[in-house]
C-alpha cells in the first residue's frame, strides 16, 4: 500500500509499504478515508524525536471503513465507517476504567514510532491496523461528516480537554496562547461551555483572523497582557490555555493568569526541565495542569455538539490533499502556510 513515511529531518515521502494485517485477536484493519496533518506531526517532520526513524509511517488522526476484524472483536464489523482515537488503550485496566486511557500500559500512539509506546503504523496511509478495536474505534454517527469527525479523534478532543481541565466556567475570561488548530479548538470549546471572553494570541495574522471570525478576540502576543488586563480590571485571566508547547509559551501563560487561576497546557512538551517560578506560583495559589486529548473518553460528549452545529471544527481546514500531495503539504505546514490539512 501507499503511505506517508518520515524520510529524514524536514522530509516526508510517499512510499510502498507492507499492507497491515490482523496480528492480535482484538485487531481491526481499517481502510482510511480521511487522515490529517496535526501540529504535533511537525515534531516528527523536523526530526526532533529520537523514537521516530526513517521509514516510520506517520499519522494519528483518521476516519475509515473497517475491512477486517479479529475473532474477539464484538462491537464492530466490516463495512462500518468508524473514527479512531489517536492512541490505543485496552479498555479493561485500572486506568481505563477511570477514563484515563492515555495512561494504559497498552497505550501507544499511531505513527509515532517508540516515542509513546510500542511502534505501530500511522494512518496517513491507505490502511491502518487498530489494536483493541472495540475500544479505540467508534462508529461514525449519522449526521457527522468524516471531515468533522476526524477532529474529534484528536484536535478537538484536545481543545475540549483544555476547557475541561482548566475548569472553564460561565463568565470566565480565557486567554489562549497559540492560534494553531489546537488553540482554535480550545477557543471554540471554551466558548461552548460559557466563557464570557476568549482571547487568542498568535504571531500570524491569518490565525488571528480565524479566531476573530469564530467568536474570539484576537491579539498579537505583545499586546495579549494588555487586552486581558482591560477585560479583567487588571486581575489576569481566569484560565490560560497554552497551546504551543515549549518553555517560552508556558512561562508567558504563568504570567497572564490571575491569583488562584489555572494554567492548562495542551501544547506538546519534550523539554526535560522548566524553570517554574515557584515563589510567585505559591503566593498566587496557581494551578498548573497538563492535558492530552483523550478521544475515547470525551467523544460521546463531543459528537452531539458537532452534529448539532454548536461546534464546527472544520472552520480551520485550509487544505485538502491526496496522499501523493502530502509531502508538499508538510512543507507548507512547516512554513506556517497551512492551519489544518486533511488527506483524502
Molecular structure report:
With 344 residues, the protein is α/β, with parallel strands linked by helices. It folds into two domains: 2-154 and 294-343, Alpha-Beta Complex (Quinone Oxidoreductase, Chain A, domain 1), CATH 3.90.180.10; 158-290, NAD(P)-binding Rossmann-like Domain (Rossmann fold), CATH 3.40.50.720. 29% of the residues lie in helices and 23% in strands. It has twelve helices and 15 strands. The chain has helices at 41-45, 94-97, 133-136, 146-152, 155-166, 181-192, 205-213, 224-232, 247-256, 278-283, 295-308, 326-334; strands at residues 2-8, 11-16, 28-37, 62-69, 81-83, 127-130, 138-139, 173-177, 197-201, 217-219, 237-242, 257-265, 287-290, 319-321, 341-343. The strands form three sheets. Strands 3, 4, 5, 6, 7, 14 and 15 form a seven-stranded mixed sheet that branches. Strands 10-9-8-11-12-13 form a six-stranded parallel sheet, sandwiched between helices. Strand 14 (319-321), helix 12 (326-334) and strand 15 form a beta-alpha-beta unit.
Amino acid at each position: 500500500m501507499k503511505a506517508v513515511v518520515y524520510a529524514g529531518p524536514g522530509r516526508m515521502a510517499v512510499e510502498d509499504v507492507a499492507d497491515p494485517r490482523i496480528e492480535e485477536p482484538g485487531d481491526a484493519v481499517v481502510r482510511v478515508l480521511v487522515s490529517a496533518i496535526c501540529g504535533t506531526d511537525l515534531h516528527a517532520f523536523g526530526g526532533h524525536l529520537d523514537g521516530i526513524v526513517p521509514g516510520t509511517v506517520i499519522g494519528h488522526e483518521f476516519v475509515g471503513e473497517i475491512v477486517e476484524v479479529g475473532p474477539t472483536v464484538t462491537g464492530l464489523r466490516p463495512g462500518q465507517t468508524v473514527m479512531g482515537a489517536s492512541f490505543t488503550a485496552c479498555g479493561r485496566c485500572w486506568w481505563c476504567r477511570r477514563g484515563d486511557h492515555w495512561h494504559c500500559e497498552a497505550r501507544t500512539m499511531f505513527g509515532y514510532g517508540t516515542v509513546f509506546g510500542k511502534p505501530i503504523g500511522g494512518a496517513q496511509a491507505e490502511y491502518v491496523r487498530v489494536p483493541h478495536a472495540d475500544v479505540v474505534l467508534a462508529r461514525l454517527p449519522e449526521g457527522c461528516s468524516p471531515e468533522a469527525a476526524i477532529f474529534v479523534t484528536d484536535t478537538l478532543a484536545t481543545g475540549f480537554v483544555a476547557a475541561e481541565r482548566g475548569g472553564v466556567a460561565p463568565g470566565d475570561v480565557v486567554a489562549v496562547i497559540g492560534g494553531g488548530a489546537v488553540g482554535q479548538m480550545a477557543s471554540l470549546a471554551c466558548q461552548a461551555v460559557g466563557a464570557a471572553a476568549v482571547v487568542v494570541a498568535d504571531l500570524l495574522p491569518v490565525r488571528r483572523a480565524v479566531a476573530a471570525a469564530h467568536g474570539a478576540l484576537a491579539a498579537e502576543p505583545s499586546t495579549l497582557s494588555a487586552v486581558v488586563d482591560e477585560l479583567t480590571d487588571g486581575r489576569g485571566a481566569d484560565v490560560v490555555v497554552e497551546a504551543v508547547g515549549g518553555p517560552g509559551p508556558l512561562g508567558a501563560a504563568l504570567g497572564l493568569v490571575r491569583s488562584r487561576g489555572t494554567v492548562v497546557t495542551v501544547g506538546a512538551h519534550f523539554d526535560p526541565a522548566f524553570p517554574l517560578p515557584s515563589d510567585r506560583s505559591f503566593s498566587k495559589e496557581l494551578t498548573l495542569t497538563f492535558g492530552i486529548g483523550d478521544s475515547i473518553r470525551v467523544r460521546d460528549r463531543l459528537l452531539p455538539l458537532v452534529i448539532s452545529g454548536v461546534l464546527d471544527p472544520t472552520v480551520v481546514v485550509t487544505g485538502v490533499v491526496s496522499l501523493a500531495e502530502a509531502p508538499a503539504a508538510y512543507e507548507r505546514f512547516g512554513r506556517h502556510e497551512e492551519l489544518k490539512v486533511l488527506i483524502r
